[in-house]
Amino acid sequence: MDLRYSDRKLIIGGGFILVGLIFIIRLFFLQVMDDSYKLSAENNVLRHMTEYPARGLVYDRKGKLLVYNEAYYDLMVIPKQVQDLDTLDFCNTLGITVEDFKQRMQKIKDYSKHKPSVFEKQLSSEFYAMLQEKLHHYKGFFTQTRTLRKYPSRVAAHLLGYVGEVDDRITKDNVYYKSGDYIGVSGIEKHYEEYLRGQKGDKVMMVDVYNRPKGSFKDGEYDKLPVSGLDLISTIDGDLQAYAEKLMQNKIGSVVAIEPSTGEILVLATSPTYDPNLLVGRVRSENYSLMSKDEFKPLFNRALMAQYPPGSTFKLVNNLIGQQEKVVFPQTTYGCRMGYSAGPIHVGCHQHPSPLNLMQSVQHSCNAYYCNVYRNILDSKKSVREGYDVWRKHVLSFGFGKKFNTDLPSELKGLIPTGDYYDKIYGKSRWKSLTVVSLSIGQGELGTTPLQLANLVATLANRGFYYPPHLVKQIGAKKIENEFTTRNYTTIDSQYFQIVIDGMEQVVEAGTAARSKLKGIPYCGKTGTAQNPHGEDHSVFVCFAPKENPKIALAVFVENSGKGGTYAAPIASLLIEKYLTDSLRRPLVEEFILNANLMPKPVEKPLKKEPLTD
Amino acid sequence: MVSIYLVMIFLGWISIYAAVYNEEHKSILDISENYGKQLIWIGTSIFIATIILLIDGKFYTVFSYPIYGIMILTLILVLVFGREVSGSKSWFEIGSNFRIQPAEFGKFATALVVAKYLSTLNIKFEDMKTKLVTGIFIAAPALLILLQNDTGSALVYGAFLFVLYREGLSGNFLMAGVAVVIVFIVTLLFDPKTMMWIVGIIASLIFIAGKRNWKNALLIGGTAVAFSGMSYSVGYVVDNVLEIHQKTRINVMLGKEDDPKGVGYNVNQSKIAIGSGGFSGKGFLNGTQTKYKFVPEQSTDFIFCTVGEEWGFLGSFVVIVLFLVLLVRIIFVAERQKSTFTRIYGYGVAAILFFHFAVNVAMTIGLAPVIGIPLPFFSYGGSSLWAFTILLFVFIKLDAYRMQLLR
Fold first, then answer.
1. Residue ranges of chain A with per-residue pLDDT less than 50
2. Contacting residues for B288 by C-beta, under 8 A, at least 6 apart
3. Which of A26, A28, A214 shows the shortest C-beta gap to B367?
4. Given A354, A534, A588, B191, which is the most exposed site by the fewest CB atoms within 10 A?
5. B187: how many CB neighbours lie within 10 A of its CB?
6. pLDDT of residue B256
7. Which of the 8 DSSP states describes residue B209?
8. Measured distance CA(B379)–CA(B368) in Å, rounded
9. Which of A2, A5, A37, A80 to mutate to test binding with chain B, by most B CBs within 10 Å of its CB?
């Protein structure tokens, strides 16, 4: 036997074992030391599917649904999976051109070839049913169910707001939002976004190499169920809101109603308005741009953003400040001969009995009386400036000149000029109480919003305090308890209010709003005229009702309609009637208001100005 | 050896079942699925093994040449009448469900004929003529298989280098073979210039360390020049001789091309599957990567992934040890033979099994380019299972006659 090479068996056998050892070492590193392959394996096989929660609903204060969700379908595409697509057929089905298709696909591919993107948004249920039959021809396309907001009563568009798709800016700042998600853009939808949106769910699915779902991962151990958004109960009275919007048809202006005992806003109507359903889904951007070009600005929320001089309604404030500063007393009388004259200044007034005491000054809205009161306030201190600052501080305590900063969409703060402002115009110590005397009757450099005036009457109804006006009273099962439910006191002592309230009652009983008297409901009001340099003056009426234990405080603005008693007061009285008795017993008044068309005619500059009162 | 064989085919079948597993399949005996078919192949293999054990051992020595002849003829026939499957024309189709791959049996025939030829009286391996004839015996089937466009199976014939080495072929051939592979790979990783520096430095070191005479200088210098020349020609070979898919496979293996969705996909997914198995694996039928078909060819060439993923490091370790035990056992048994024929044949068996095992596993764990050859006894496939069964059991039968001198 040939034994020459027999020790080569060791070399060969050793070689075999060496290779085996190399394999074992390699496997040890691959399997035991290196975790990255486990991760890759998960990435291979696991898909995280976002499950969208239902957005919270919004109810009115009586439980009536204001906003709900309706299902619709997004057509999604994963470009990498698209193959053998009959582009022409596909385009015909969707009703788009081939160029359009190519453009969209390019854009989507630029974003990602592997991630799903929205190809066509918000298909209706009918279209979805039709598409469903053809979808298996379009590899790489699939549908995803989403929801759209619906507004069954078609009211309160501005305060409810709308939802829209997030933009890059939002997705960059906030990891919660992914491209294609929706977010509240305005109104309640924006302010309460965190509560309404709920929490997105995450379903972990296993997929095979063709991306076909193969069931949930570990029986859903790592799944996160979507958490539905919380429902909101709004302070709005849906019926009253609808009625207010109806009364305001063909008029420009706004209505704000507040429950004085809580600060809850019952009505926040602006006119012209729009059907909130118009700013939903595919038609949104088109409608939005149409409306933003409308000369009557339906998107503009006049109740919160229109700043008018408050007119005679401001006399109520000056009355109270005068009493608080002890420059005027219930028995103080001033005479008036068609106005107030001092030096070169003349403030006109209208025909009324003279002289008047403090209560009567409210009833008859005497300009001369308030010129006197106002000058007394300013001149009672060492300097006019000091007097003015004291006066201004009182005014601000009513909520004027600042925002309430509650849950209201983009309110404006109005304008109560500072002493510095007048110092700048006239020079330090170069202005007197007479210089700014127009502030006494709510004219001049004043800006107030309808909301602020409504809050003023709510404060009067409460005799000295207000709750910040707000729109939502309950989130989910939890009643709101925060700064909304904290009293804000004015700087006026409560004993001074009675005489003003009595005067306001007389306004309705036998004053400028006598035509809007309600049988069996004694209430308190004040008319006003907001000066309008561009045309007919704006009509204002503020009131609260009933006089004892008030349930509702209202501010009504009707632009270009002249005196407050003509249109604004009847509208307020109709709303009071409806809110307190749930019935309407004055069909003639209602008819008169509904038929009134006060939309401005082509601009005509008036030649002559009426005296600045009513 | 028989028990290792049985354990291996059982593990193989389980892995195939796991690889193809799908909740929807009704029966584990369903012959429309790979694991059902494999059961048939296993049954027939055991039948074949029994027949082999019943036939007189002399049959194989006597009929070595005829068997080899028939084999060569079959390989030629398949070139003419064969059916092309994924680019290789190496299959005979029987019915519509079953196919036979003659190349698998070629290895057996070649092992037989090499053993027969070298064990013939008066044949000395040292003779140039003997070496040439042996070379032709080995090269002929390899070339025919290359013509079928089945590079992987043809490369297997390189395994006979081990056999010849045992029988007296200079170790330099084996060294040269290994060196060529190393130079080839290193050159592809770097460039020929760097390679020349490396070769030059190594050569100088060897010269300084060894006897410093003219003969050595000439020898080492010559080898260095040859290697440098080769490294220059590597670029040429890769660019012009290899086909594109072979070229990319090599580049991917070397990490020069990153293409996780293309050619590298196989290797990448295979590594992910094995790597995700961890120490003890995910458990039988719980391998997500193999079950959801992320690994291509998982019941055939990439069956090792299923083992790695579902049984983890422990399972892979056991399989590798099983192979090593089998290989060492074969060498041990071969060495105890009185018969030169049986010894040479035994080395043939060991070499072929080793080559398949080494290249297949190396490929699944990313140590070698993707060469489509099966893992013996594990991979799905009737031809390969039959062929390996025949290969092994003929050796077992021959061992039974070890006290007799078979020529």
1. 1, 602-614
2. A41, A44, A45, A206, B276, B282
3. A26
4. A588
5. 24
6. 46
7. H
8. 18
9. A37
Q: Contact at 8 Å (CB) between B328 and A17? A: yes
* Strands (DSSP E) found in A93-172: 117-123, 141-150, 163-165
**What is the average pLDDT score of chain B?**
77
- More confident position, A94 or B200: A94
Q: For B164-179, what is each residue's pLDDT tens digit?
A: 888 877 777 777 766 6
For residues B213-233, give the mean pLDDT. 70
> Closest Cα to residue A77, out of A127, A129, A114?
A114
Chain A residues touching residue B118 (CB < 8 angstroms): none
What is the pLDDT at residue A613?
42
pLDDT recorded at residue B31: 59
Domain boundaries, chain A: 51-234, 238-595
At residue B96, the pLDDT reads 60
A595/A510 Cα distance (integer angstroms): 26
How far apart are alpha carbons A97 and A94 in whole angstroms?
A: 9
What one-character DSSP code corresponds to residue A343?
Answer: T
Q: Tell if the CB–CB gap between B166 and A12 is shorter than 8 Å.
A: yes
Which of B275, B324, B361 lies at the smallest CB-CB distance from A16? B324
- Of A531, A36, A576, residue with least CA distance to A267: A576
Structure tokens at A280: 């939903």
Q: Do A44 and B272 touch (CB under 8 A)?
A: yes
Fold category of A51-234 in CATH: Penicillin-binding protein 2a (Domain 2) (3.90.1310)
Distances A161 to A407, A500, B186 between C-alpha atoms, Å: 12, 37, 69
pLDDT for residue B303 is more than 90:
no
Given CB atoms, is B317 within the 8 Å cutoff of chain A? yes
Are the CB atoms for A530 and A309 separated by under 8 Å?
Answer: yes
In chain B, % helix, strand, coil (3-state, to 5) comes to: 70, 5, 25
Architecture of domain A238-595: 3-Layer(aba) Sandwich (3.40)
Report yes or no: B347 and B166 within 8 Å, Cβ to Cβ: yes
CA–CA separation, A309 and A426 (whole Å): 21
At B300, give phi and psi (nearest 5°).
-105, -95
pLDDT over threshold 70, residue B63: yes
| Cβ of residue B311 closer than 8 Å to a chain A Cβ | no
Q: Which residues of A77-88 are buried (b: 16+ CB within 10 A; e: fewer)?
A: bbbeebeebeee
Q: Which residues contact A359 (CB under 8 A, 6 or more apart)?
A: A330, A499, A502, A503, A506
Backbone angles phi, psi at A219, to 5 degrees: 55, 35
| Spatial distance between the Cα atoms of B97 and B77, rounded to a whole number of angstroms | 21
* Residue A470 DSSP class: B
ipTM here: 0.79
Residue B257 confidence (pLDDT):
47
A14 touches chain B (CB under 8 A): no
* Residue A265 backbone phi and psi in degrees, to 5: -80, 120
Query: Is B331 an 8 Å CB contact of chain A?
Result: yes
Amino acid of residue B346: G
Residue of B nearest to A80 (CA): B261
> Model confidence over B102-124: pLDDT tens digits?
888 888 999 999 888 888 877 77
Taking 90 as the threshold, does the pLDDT of residue B258 lie above it? no
Helix axes B382-400, B2-20, angle to 10 degrees: 170
The angle at the Cα of B302, spanning B296 to B304, to the nearest 5 degrees, equals: 140
> Hey, CA dihedral for A81, A83, A86, A87, is it positive or negative?
positive
Better pLDDT: A237 or B22? A237
